[in-house]
Amino acid sequence: MIELKKLRKSFFVGGKNLHALDGIDLSIGPGEVFGFIGPNGAGKSTTMRILSGLLRQNSGTATVNGLDTLTDGDAIRRIIGYMPDFLGVYDDLTVDEYLQFFAAAFKIPRSDRRRIVDQVLELTDLTSKRAAMVDSLSRGMQQRLGIARVLIHDPKVLLLDEPASGLDPRARIEMRSLITELGRMGKTIMVSSHILTELGEMCTSLGMIERGKLLFAGSLQDAFARVRAAGAVRERIIVEIEAPANLEAPDTRSLATAALLADSRVQSIDKEPQHPGALSIELTPGEHGHHFVFQILDRAGVQVRSFTPQTLKLEDAFLKLTTGALQ
Ligand SMILES: Nc1ncnc2c1ncn2[C@@H]1O[C@H](COP(=O)(O)OP(=O)(O)OP(=O)(O)O)[C@@H](O)[C@H]1O
Ligand SMILES: [Mg+2]
Question: Ligand 2: distance of its center to the CA of 280 in Å?
Answer without folding.
Answer: 40
